[in-house]
Amino acid sequence: QLQLVESGGGLVQPGGSLRLSCAVSGFDAEYYARGWFRQAPGKEREGVSCISYTGGSINYADSVAGRFTISRDNAKNTVYLQMNILKPEDTAVYHCAADYFGLCASSINSDDYERWGQGTQVTVSS
Question: Closest by alpha carbon to 114, among 28, 14, 32?
Fold first, then answer.
């Protein structure tokens, strides 16, 4: 049973930075692609970024490209989302998700992901 636990959310001023972490544990954890999704009140869930299970493919939503960076640690048991130049419209609950043998499609579609973390709140406000 794959488990994902997010951390690192909080309150930050516009233009600031925040680093989210997703700790992954369970059988065959290394064979899951990782995705970050977010959902704000009144809005649909949005795919933010993903990285394939091989680590060879990475995609970003246009809204965050150039500001956010997804990565894994050396052991590939934790995935990160470095968020820079944060804007108020980045405010949302951010979820980490996993896709068995996922290749990280450019659409970053939540329907492709089978396992989900509990989410962490990110609030960007002055």
Answer: 32
